[in-house]
Amino acid sequence: MLRSKTSETDILLNVGCGRNAPPAWRNIDASPTVLLGSVPLLRQFVSRSFPRNVRYGDIVRGLSMGPGSCKAIFCCHTLEHLTYEGALKALRNMCDLLVVNGTLRIIVPDLRRLAMVYLEHMSEDAASRFMRWSGLGQEVTPSPLRRLFGNSRHRWMWDEKSLTEVLRTNGFYGVRPCLYGDNPIFQLVENKERYDDSVALEAIRL
Predict the structure, then answer these.
(1) Which of 14, 101, 126, 180 could cross-link to 121 by cystine, CB 3.0-4.6 Å?
(2) What pTM was computed for the model?
(3) Are the beta carbons of 171 and 206 closer than 8 angstroms?
């Protein structure tokens, strides 16, 4: 969990950052690897796969940051790794962290796009291709270590309509589809490839 509390209202928060951790942003990730790496006695046993400025933070459980402390939040390919209930909690927590009229940009794989490709694919392995591309299910049994330290599976998928609806009912307005590079505030944190075959929405905190 993030330890430092702050009364600032201009934090740029990068939720589920992975290895994408620009210095101007506060970068958090809920990976167990990040958590163990924050413990001095365990740090030497953990692979240093994350940048040093990534801190452990679980947006579902909540962060030790004051309400209204962020002017913008970027959440890219993270929500689909949460359960439906967890995703709603995450959205409410992000709403609380934003200042009034603060901006959330969220990107997830597009379930509608995946389904259309599956329906249009005529080969015998269309179902297998869909399962691999969507990140649903498991092709092989993961190792115990992989189960402990990995969270690559997709737990709940979204399309534009469903994501727009949950944003509107969890404290946001002005929901709009967004494109790579169309808002300068996200310039340093966004990656063009992450928009491919994805739903990208921007919303304003009520």
Answers:
(1) 126
(2) 0.88
(3) yes
